[in-house]
Amino acid sequence: MPKTIPSGRHRVGRTGHHATPALRRRWPWITASVVVGVFGVFAVVVGVFAIQAITVKNDLLGAKSQISSIMTYVKNGQSAKITAAGDKITALTRDARDTVQGPLWEIAAGIPLVGQNVDAVRKATEATSIVVEGALPAGVKMLSALEIDDMSVSGGGVDLAPIEEAAKSLPEIKKTFAEAKAKLDGVDRANILPVVDNAIGSLFDIMDEAGPALEQVEHYLPTFLSVAGADEKRTYMLVFQNNAEIRAAGGLPAATAIVSVDDGHIKLQEQTSTWTFRRDLQVIFPPEETQALYEADTFKGFGNFTRTPNFPTTAAAFDSLWNMTTGGHLDGVIMLDPVVLSHMLKVTGPIKTADNRTLTSDNVVEALLYDAYTRYKGNAAQDAFFSSVAARVFEKLSSGDWDVMDMLDQLQLSIKEDRLKAWFADKSEEAMSTELGMDGKITADNKTTTQVGIYLNDSAYSKLEYFLKTRVNVTCDVDAGTITTSITLANSVPSEGLVNYQLGIRNKRYEIPRQDFVLDVMYFAPPGSKITGSDPAYGDAWDGARSGSEDGHEGKVMRIFVGQNETRTVSYTSTIPTGERGPVSVDTSPTVTTTPITISKTCNGVVNTK
User: Cα separation of 506 and 65, whole Å?
Assistant: First the structure.
């Protein structure tokens, strides 16, 4: 009888026959071979992908190195090398793009967890390629159009035609960056590995910053060209302030320079001083409530126009004075002080005065605000020195032997310190000045900031404020609905070494030592606010007490004496205005030194965005 095979123990081959012992022995080896083969193929694929990834990395690092070299070539004016570097960057990024668009990267992008990181690198590479392919040629064209090899401010200006030609490339560059940013917008940075994000993060930052930056360049460039006289010759007045005789806007206007700008070329036309113009002309007629804040001669004497902290008012006074004197109008007024000159000399290097003194960024402030009076006797000699310094600085700037970007940094610092202001007669140019923060206007409302202002005007007719140090403190009582602004004044005038011209003239009227400060401390409440009190209540001299308003700011003035080696604090309190309010800020007179400003955390509650 045939044997019965137990159920579950027989094997049947593909033809239905039972598996032979030999076949049973080969199955593990066949299976192992298949597995090994699969893993072998996978290893090869991974190896190829790894090699491609390294190649992409090397291509992009090479492109980055070439981009860095372009910055050097731009500074050195090597146009041919800029073009060659551009060609290398294009080739490297094109190779990287072609690699990441291959089938392996497509497959890898679909793998869970790993895929989103691969896709992020791929999109970053493609975005880089978009920028290089689209923007780099236009950028190289723009740099070539500028003729960097020959470009400088040597001779008093630059040729504007190449800049106007270069501006035509901006729309193409801006469009390319927008396309590249759209490519990156598909990457969710929150879901990629930190090591990947660190590698490509800078590209995202560049894309985020490039758009607004290009918008600004495209927006401002036509206006800059207009200011530079591209369309017609311009006439500007440069006003040099003397902070040793402090004014609300900074200092006494000690001297001016009239410059013309024609197609990018600047020429110093003439220099003037406080004695050049008539001093009995009422040049502007502000509203009665504004005039009430200032001494009667404020808008008559050249040296008093900066008693107001509102620069457009000061500029209007200078323009009117120029019109009364010459029959013409100014295209702009630019105001600066010796601290700005010190910033500029950091870039240009030192200058030599007519008497062979060397002025540097470290000693120019002292030379202009102190040494000028002890070294040069009489107004004529002092004015000659001031004019000589201004002319030498102008000559140094015209040489072109300095770094433009470094100079821009120093000018931005001067604007931030509120020492460099500009007014333009043209509305679009004045709008640019406002956007750049150099218009010197007091605030019109509280939407952006709730601004208090505390200012100083020298009423001794002295040059003592070279030795003045100040600090400002603001506190708020939201429950009481008040803001209190305090300014601390320190007098460090020495007992020896000063000449008669530096000492206070009016001090004799008040029977106080001539080394004492006589300061009109003026407070401007925020728009819509009311002044409720002050400390002291009345000041030290009745003839210096004034009140009024300017451009919506209620104001009050007290005349304060600060004795030699003494410190005094003056405070004003005003109501918190109703309606929409931005963060509390302070506007104050720029002095020879930096004024520390402290705004208490108690003022955080002032903000109201409703």
Answer: 66
Q: What are phi and psi of 403, to 5 degrees?
A: -90, 120
Structural contact between residues 242 and 590, judged by C-beta atoms closer than 8 angstroms: no
Q: Note every long-range contact of 288-292, with CB atoms under 8 Å and residues 24 or more positions apart, other chains counting.
A: 288/548, 289/548, 289/549, 289/550, 290/548, 290/549, 290/550, 290/551, 291/548, 292/546, 292/547, 292/548
Segment (H or E) for 236: strand 234-242
Question: Which two three-digit tokens encode residue 541?
Answer: 């001299």
Q: Where on the phi/psi map is residue 511: left (φ > 0), alpha (ψ -120 to 50), or beta?
A: left
Q: Are the C-beta atoms of residues 419 and 402 closer than 8 Å to each other?
A: no
Contacts with 495 (C-beta within 8 Å, 6 or more apart), sequence order: 515, 564
Q: What are phi and psi of 318, to 5 degrees?
A: -65, -40
At residue 427, the 3 state secondary structure works out as helix
Banded model confidence at residue 55, pLDDT cuts 50, 70, 90: low
Task: Please tell me the least confidently modeled range out of 8-12, 54-58, 123-127, 455-459.
Answer: 8-12
588 membership: H or E segment, kind and range:
strand 584-588
Please give the helix or strand (H or E) that residue 512 lies within, else none.
Answer: none
The amino acid at residue 279 is R
d(C-alpha 24, C-alpha 12), whole Å: 11
Tell me which H or E stretch contains 556.
strand 553-562
- Candidates 476, 475, 485; CA nearest to 523 is 485
The strands making up 421-424's β-sheet, listed across from edge to edge, are 265-273, 252-262, 234-242, 332-336, 421-424
Amino acid letter, residue 317? A
Mean pLDDT value across residues 499-504: 94
Tokens in use for 425?
């007669």
320/312 Cα distance (integer angstroms)? 12
Element (H, E) at 325: helix 311-326
Nearest Cα neighbor of 317 from 339, 286, 358, 278 is 286
Beta bridge partners of 470: 489
Burial of 2 (0-12, 13-18, 19+ CB in 10 A): exposed
Q: Identify the residue whose tokens are 């050097």.
A: 72
Q: What angle do CA 104, 106, 108 make, to 5 degrees?
A: 65
CA distance 353 to 364: 11
Which of 154, 305, 158 lies closest to 228, judged by CA? Answer: 158
- 3-state helix, strand, coil split of the chain in percent (to 5) is 50, 20, 30
How far is C-alpha 531 from the chain's CA centre? Answer: 33
**Residue range 422-450, pLDDT digits in tens:** 999 999 999 999 999 999 999 999 999 99
pLDDT tens per residue, range 143-178: 555 554 444 455 556 677 767 776 777 777 777 777
Which token pair is 480?
């009481």
- C-alpha 344/C-alpha 128 separation (Å) is 37
CA torsion sign, 128 to 133 to 135 to 136?
A: positive
Global pTM value: 0.77
Distance CA 584, CA 526 (A): 9
State yes or no: pLDDT of 103 exceeds 90.
Answer: no
Distance, CA of 76 to CA of 149 (rounded, Å): 8
Strands 531-535 and 567-575: antiparallel
- Asked if residue 198 has pLDDT above 90, the reply is no
For residue 525, what are its two tokens?
Answer: 């409440």
Q: In sequence order, which residues have a C-beta less than 8 Å from that of residue 504 and are 6 or more positions away? A: 460, 461, 462, 464, 514, 515, 516, 517, 518
